[in-house]
Specification:
By secondary structure, the protein is of the alpha/beta class. The chain has one domain: Rossmann fold (3-Layer(aba) Sandwich), CATH 3.40.50.1470. A 7-stranded mixed beta sheet has the order 2-3-4-1-5-7-6. A hairpin with a 4-residue loop joins strand 2 and strand 3. Helix 1 packs across helix 5 and helix 2 packs parallel to helix 3.
């Protein structure tokens, strides 16, 4: 039984110094999504984030950008999920992914955190790993000791252009995710 997605979260860090860094790729995705459906954002203190909602063919979905730092993202995700009674299986977390090449987006259900502090905190807050992830590729730096610096740097212009193109491709599967056609969405995105 495939679930339909009822909450899409874009992970990142708040503040202008972070908005164009690789770690904010998840935010770029949900911002594009809101723009595509002409939706606006509202700051909601009780949800520790910016929220919006849209619907496609009668399937309503909430959008969330936590205004906490990345390593406290779970607080915002759990607040929205608990308030609207959304189960982990109905959540899609969009985030930057070191293990996926730039210009590629992968859909995944369940699994580990891959060292991603945002995911780690969401596992703890939801007490579950059983949610969907939209893994936006940012590549891995050559020097493994510079991962923190790397994710908090701006991508090169060519990388940003590839990431933006991958995000546009990922936007095309959103109607399927809301309709519960996750296998079909995954197949399209991964081919």
């Amino acid at each position: 039984m495939e679930h339909s997605i009822k909450l899409i979260v874009g992970l990142g860090n708040p503040g202008s110094e972070y908005e164009n860094t690789r770690h904010n790729a998840g935010v770029w995705f949900v911002e594009q999504l809101a723009t595509q459906y002409n939706e606006t954002w509202q700051k909601e203190t009780k949800f520790h984030g910016l929220v919006s909602k849209f619907s496609i063919d009668g399937h309503e979905c909430r959008l969330l950008i936590p205004t906490t730092y990345m390593n406290n993202s779970g607080r915002a995700v759990a607040a929205v999920a608990n308030y609207y009674k959304i189960s982990p299986e109905e959540i899609l977390i969009a985030h930057d992914e070191l293990d996926v090449p730039v210009g590629t987006v992968r859909l995944k259900f369940n699994g580990g955190d891959g060292g991603h502090n945002g995911l780690k905190d969401i596992f703890k807050s939801l007490d579950s790993k059983k949610f969907y992830r939209l893994r936006i590729g940012i590549d891995r730096p050559k020097n493994i000791n510079s991962i923190v610096d790397y994710v908090l740097e701006r991508p090169t212009r060519i990388q940003r252009s590839s990431i933006d193109q991958a995000i546009l491709e990922a936007l095309e599967i959103v109607p399927m995710l809301l309709a519960g056609e996750i296998s079909k969405a995954t197949q399209i995105l991964h081919t």
